[in-house]
Predict the 3D structure of the following.
Amino acid sequence: MQNMTRAGRFNPIVVIGLISIAMIVVTLLFTRDQPTQAANRFMIALGRGQVDELMELSTFEGSADQIRKQWEYATQVAGPHYRFVYRILEYTPQGDNQAAVRIGLTRNVFGDAPYEELYDLPLRKVDGKWKVEVRNLARDMYPALPR
């Protein structure tokens, strides 16, 4: 008898689960490869010293081997004790294939008086993916950025 009384009713847990899955799918579809996501991934890779990820997320001129050596130097020699925190503030489109993401960056977070500075991360869409234009980054943002 109990099964008959539940026939035609929705289990609220199943409904909530389906709505959650639908929201995740919609979010992934509409936020796929946005400039802010690329900027966030770039900053995370920079903070962690992930050279392969930095190579993937940046545009550069010159040979890949040369740029890889520059990233290795920046992350493993010049910047291992350089600690920072950041937050993404805004995104400004600059055409179909260019954008700028403004970040607030606090360098030397363990120093005497750390303070937030504003920087723009210039991005360009290359082969359908947003990449940071490292040559156009402010030189004082991070030690020994590749050039």
